[in-house]
TrEMBL record:
Top-level taxonomy: Bacteria, Bacillati, Actinomycetota, Actinomycetes, Kitasatosporales
Record has Transmembrane helix as a keyword: yes
Transmembrane segments: 33-53, 59-78
InterPro entries, per database record: DUF4191
Listed Low complexity bias regions: 219-233
Source organism of this protein record: Streptomyces bluensis
Chain residue ranges for the region called Disordered: 210-233
Entry keyword set: Membrane, Transmembrane, Transmembrane helix
Keyword Transmembrane helix: yes
Protein name: DUF4191 domain-containing protein
Pfam family for this entry, one: DUF4191
Length: 233
């Protein structure tokens, strides 16, 4: 029992420190975050407290209002922090891979299954919606890279739907902040065993990542492809 309490006490400062760090990072991109959170908390609590006085139960409604104000503040903070993070990642090579890693359970992500010398990249995610190829880079160059990878997927797993998305802010492109939502809205056509079988077939095929190590998350802007490495697709 004592060990559990000690572990909990040690974890709390870590969570508080993480929240504080997230707030500082968010505030750099969102200067009004403090005012917005304060307004949400005060308004939510004030509304319930006012209702409590009107019906003659200010204490009960005040407690409920406090809890709901805390919940509403946490939700708003999470969304604005996520938006700020996407804003900072926008345009960085490898940003889409970082988002794919956090799509949710049931998805298997393989970053950089195809790449060219200009650092245009195609990432792959496999889930119940099938295979999703996510490309990032120059729109004119990345389309041919994406088409080649999609053709390869169709040839290897002909019975699995293959979706292709291009991350960006241009026409027919998906903004980074909407990538996760877009993928989760795709129709689910595969069951668990089918997803596993698809992953096994693709894993047997191999990919660029199995031959050339790349850092997780956004890649350094100055990174160049090594000479004498694996043949690029």
């Amino acid at each position: 029992m004592a060990r559990k309490e000690t572990a909990a006490d040690a974890a709390n400062p870590g969570r508080l420190k993480q929240i504080a760090l997230t707030y500082k990072m968010t505030r750099k991109a969102d200067k009004k975050i403090g005012l917005v959170l304060a307004a949400v908390g005060i308004v939510t609590f004030g509304v319930f407290l006012a209702i409590g006085f009107l019906i003659g139960h200010p204490i009960y409604l005040g407690i409920l209002g406090f809890l709901l104000a805390f919940l509403a503040t946490a939700i708003v903070f999470g969304r604005r922090a996520e938006r700020a993070a996407f804003g900072q990642m926008e345009g960085q090579p490898g940003a889409a891979a970082a988002v794919l890693d956090n799509v949710g359970r049931g998805w298997t992500t393989t970053p950089a299954v195809a790449m060219n010398r200009s650092q245009d990249v195609v990432h792959r995610a496999v889930g119940k919606a099938g295979i999703v190829l996510v490309a990032e880079g120059n729109p004119n160059r990345v389309k041919s890279l994406l088409a080649a990878e999609k053709k390869k997927m169709t040839r290897i797993v002909a019975d699995v739907p293959v979706h292709d998305l291009i991350v960006g802010t241009g026409e027919d492109q998906i903004p980074l902040k909407k990538l996760r939502t877009t993928m989760l809205k795709l129709p689910r056509v595969l069951n668990g065993p089918q997803v596993t079988a698809t992953n096994d077939r693709l894993r047997a095929m191999g990919d660029l990542m199995s031959n050339m190590p790349l850092p997780k998350g956004p890649m350094p802007k100055g990174m160049k492809m090594p000479r004498g490495g694996p043949k690029l697709r």
